[in-house]
Amino acid sequence: MDTDFLFEALDLSCASDLQDLAKSVGWNFTRGQVNLFLSSGGAVFGYRHEGQLIASAGIYSYGSELASLGIVIVHADFQGHGLGKQVVIRCLVEAERTGTPVTLVATEQGFPLYRSLGFEAIGQVHRFELAGRADILTETETWVEGISVIQNSDLADIIHLDEGIFGAKREMVCDALFRNMASGVIYRDEQGHVRGVAMSVQRNDLLVIGPVMAVNEAMGIELVKFAASRWQGRVRIDVPSSQPLFMENLTQLGFTQNMVSQVMIRGAAALPGERNRLFGIVDPVFG
User: Fold this and answer.
1) Which domain does 151 fall in, by range?
2) Which of 45, 60, 120, 159 has the fewest CB atoms within 10 Å, i.e. the most exposed one?
3) Same domain assignment for residues 71 and 136
């Protein structure tokens, strides 16, 4: 490898550099999105050449149960030097110290690299988008009993629900998402127990909904509809392949599928948690 490539850990001061790196491969990260990646408790690394950030990857550890790998990017002008592999290996060292399984959502370009490093495909994530106005989803409906707008006091219950469904405690991710939330709704049963949550973040003219956690697909759909009820732009949601009925219901609402990505894992045979209650992921970066 070229000795002019300088390896370093990245932090919030590198947000603009990470945005520029993403642009070089056609990824339009917003500043809020980059800040989320750099402030959610992960270890993010990169390579620089003459001061320019030319490669990145981040590992987000959720105790010893699971870690997620993401933001693996190599600048278009510096591909073919092995930078992607080296920065990913550095991330994996962090997980290997505790024997933690690592999951990721792979791009088509990255899939061969991950296979060579011991990752196996275990499913897919399906990206759905609604191109029209999302507020039409609820224009003829009344508010469903038990669903309310998320309040600050709900955060602890949301973290607890996420831990059971995701299978690992993502307190810092949930907290960062909560602080950056554009909209969110929560469903409590008659006893006050949290049974469902949908949160969203805004990325320019796009509303990205996730996570979506619910007792069944019907409740998941209701949560999505109300999370987007005041939004007048495009909507996106990334759905695990284990939820075919939920995806069918999204299609009936006008959503279209525009991308399918492989979910991979290293160090385990399957993802932990009650995944049958997960209908939309937070972000591919966070698993």
Assistant:
1) 126-286
2) 120
3) no
Q: What per-residue confidence (pLDDT) applies to 140?
A: 47
CA dist., res. 89 & res. 233, Å (int): 39
CB 250 within 8 A of CB 128: yes
The answer on 140 and 265 residing in a single domain is yes
Per-residue pLDDT tens digits for 47-72: 999 999 999 999 999 999 999 999 99
Percent of the chain with pLDDT over 90: 86
Above 80 in pLDDT, residue 134? Answer: no
How would you classify the pairing of strands 234-240 and 120-130? antiparallel
**pLDDT of 132:** 76
Same domain, 73 and 193: no
Report, as an integer, the average pLDDT of 249-258.
Answer: 95
196 and 244 assigned to the same domain = yes
Share of the chain above pLDDT 70, in %: 95
Q: For residue 141, is pLDDT > 60?
A: no
Quick check: is 91 in a domain? yes
pTM over 0.85: yes
- Average pLDDT on 111-121 reads 97
CA dihedral 220, 225, 230, 235 (to 10 degrees): 90
In the structure encoding, which two tokens stand for residue 105, read together? 């959502």
186 shares its domain with 233:
yes
- Nearest-angstrom CA–CA distance, 82 and 84: 6
Are residue 143 and residue 231 in the same domain, yes or no? yes
Residue 147 phi, psi (nearest 5): -95, 130
Quick check: is 52 in a domain?
A: yes
Query: Do 77 and 163 fall into the same domain?
Result: no
233 lies in some domain: yes
CA atoms of 10 and 55, how far apart (whole Å): 11
| Count of Cβ atoms closer than 10 Å to residue 39 Cβ | 17
Going from the C-alpha of 237 to that of each of 20, 247, 252, 260, the distances in angstroms are 25, 10, 15, 12
